[in-house]
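User: I'm writing a tutorial on reading structure tokens. Could you give me a worked example: one chain, its sequence, then its tokens, then a sentence or two explaining what the tokens reveal?
Assistant: Sure. Here is the example chain.
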Amino acid sequence: METTPGTCPVRIALVVLLLLLGATCRLGGAMTREERQRLRNQVIEMFDHAYQNYMDHAYPADELMPLTCRGRVRGLEPSRGDVDDALGKFSLTLIDTLDTLVLLNKPVEFEKAVRKVLRDVRLDNDIVVSVFETNIRVLGGLLGGHSMAVMLKEQGTHMSWYRDELLAMAKDLGLRLLPAFNTSSGLPYPRVNLRHGVRSPEARTGTETDTCTACAGTIILEFAALSRFTGDPVFEEHARRALDFLWEKRQRNSNLVGTTINIHSGEWVRRDSGVGAGIDSYYEYLLKAYILLGDERFLERFNTHYASIMKYISQPPLLLDVHIHKPLLTARTWMDSLLAFFPGLQVLKGDIRPAIETHEMLYQVTKKHNFLPEAFTTDFRVHWAQHPLRPEFAESTYFLYKATGDPYYLEVGRTVLENLNRFARVPCGFAAMKDVRTGSHEDRCMDSFFLAEMFKYLFLLFADPEDLPFDVEDYIFTTEAHLLPLSLSTANTTYTLAVSNHTLGESSLSDTDDSNFDWSCPNTQLLFPDPSFPQSIREPVRSAVDKSCPRPAPPSDGGSAGRPPLRARDFMANNPEHLELLKRMGVSLIHLKDGRVQLVQHATQAFSAVDAEDGLRFMQEMIELSSQQQKEQLPPRAVQIVSHPFFGRVVLTAGPAQFGTDLSKSHRGVQGYVALSEPYSGCSELSNAAVVAGHIALLQRGQCMFAEKARNIQKAGAIGGIVIDDNEGSSSDTAPLFQMAGDGRSTDDITIPLLFLFHKEGNIVLEALREYREVEVLLSDRARDRAAIFKGKALPSYILESRIEIHFRSVVCQCESVCVGLLSSLAQTGGESERTEEEDCSAEDRETVAPPHSTDTDQSSAGTVEEHQSTGHEGDQRQEAEGQGSQEADPVVAEDSSSQSIDSLLADWKEDLEAFQQMEKDEL
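And here are its predicted structure tokens:
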């Protein structure tokens, strides 16, 4: 590959080249034991926060909805499609968390939890559930709980009363899942009715023809353990039969399997193959079945698949899907977050180097977006922006640390821990990310795997051996991180010989190459003779993710020493410091007559060779950024409520405007108190300009163009605006992102930001305004952590003046509107009595705060024609429904004053401030 001087195209070849060069970097010092203990204790505190909120606000429901502080009960909440198949009205989160309680040294709570499960949980529910999810979460949870109960009983400290009750429940559940395996192929139906099985009129299932490879191939550990525990071979036999069929149906030339298979014919429905969603745990269970059961047949199959994965799918540090019949052709240009488990599996295999490479790529993407997006492109941009608090990256981090002892992975774990606390923690637990770009939350649920897996792996990462109540080396982790004892390999083996001799068709042990039985364990002494070796692997991966070439050392005359190069995505034409950096890099900024700016670089005018190189890189990035902006829509923005009692914990997804301040170029965003505009539509000169001045104006959608609203509030002195949808019930959960376009003429005169909130999210702001009178929000391109929001700020004077005491407790509302009392100040005037939760949820609270609907003429992201009444949503050209209602008085914010002692408020504020300062120290 030839390159001209000063250029550095970002290609996979660059990674290989830099690997050969062996770039090195000084490693940081090992983390002290005291710091590890602090982080271990923080994991326990975070687990307690999540677990206790589930028990307080959700149990016996399956999962917790952390924003509204209530349980998710299937059928009572809007359907989420296949995701809801994990819910079976069997207290999913509690069962999934049983063995986590023991690992985290909570045997008393574990004993209480087991009694609750035995007393409250019923498995004969008339409900259709996912065979895969029920197996790994519920059956695995019961077996893991049984393993822990037996272990504690043998230690003689707890569970003396236990008589295998959890195992009896597990067998009952296993028998309820068995009807799903009644197919000619042995592959299970994807769903089963817990009471009626499949294919009966009452079952409401059994008509499906397809299932994913992972769904059919992730059964063996739990079913084999159930057979070994109970002595009943039927479960292990069915799981083996399904695995045998999948092995027979692999593509014989590539030795790869597809993503989706017909359970009757065995034909591949989706022929793309990777290590992520749809296939992931199939590979995991082949290797772990060998470890748990000792059957070399599983090792043979895994190694055969693994060789093909490394030949076709692995393109270090990437793992890209390919076609099983044409494995040299990639099937897609993006990766999903579920593949983050694979470095951990490679550790079990003993293949450390590619594990380090892929893990580093995932870590850099995590640092870029705070969390792994649900899917991201090969150039590491967001493809699907959600993040449901998946634990796979933490899992691989633990296994790599376990194998290498490299303290680098403790720092990775610290990053995961701090991001969870800063961006996902809410008063009622931890909330999934709706969009990692904005940091907005969603109330879908706090998935049970978050407690079952995330806290296990993080605790194990920071814990010392003496912190553990048992030796984890005696157990194997299932894909849901449930603990199954390795002693099962010798339990009830009288029938296993017949099972293991099950016919394999064309394939048998006698006609396979001996290399298929190769196995190895990580030898860290040999692997890391030089402590800089792992860094030599990571550095080029970082460069590839960050799209930057290695930067030469700055010249001795100073040059750009101590200053990172200016990146195109950060550039602001009105920033004097940025203009000075352009000058140093030899880049000229030319203002054109039409308002645009043109950049021209003359390398000879740069202050140094390093500056010239930075300038060339800057120009290349700017060209790419300009091209992307022309092709892509604007990303969503965030409205973050930062005032008491929310303090940045509530983040709402907002639609951007194609005019006004570009929040993506503002490091701090726009922060201020909200004020209702009069008229609320904002379609004429405001009558309350004195109130709106210096505030962020709240406007109702309708009657005029968005740009006209922006001009009117800007004239009144507003520093920003939020337009709230008047289509009742609209929500960012269900509606596509809405972008506000201009009015067909120049909008350069609009210099303030304007954001759009759907009705549900807008109502949260209005309800907060009704409740607390003064509500401060931050408009930004993404949520900011509280340390950044309150850094260096004194206690807001409005809190001192109102003397409101903050009660940090959650309120569960049964209101029809969205419950925003996540943190509520419940003191009444005079401080004589507190309002009850019932009063908080009174009929008055359920009234809509917004003024009446009125005839709208807004503009969508792609249109310039005025809108009239319409209900269609047609892509970017969609027109939004505009209702016409009666004219009523503008809303009046209910008055509320409090007069309780400020001492507790100051104490709470000081505690938060100290936590923020500690976060900053940790970062340094």
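What the tokens reveal: The mean pLDDT is 79. The chain has three domains: 33-487, 577-631, 637-791.
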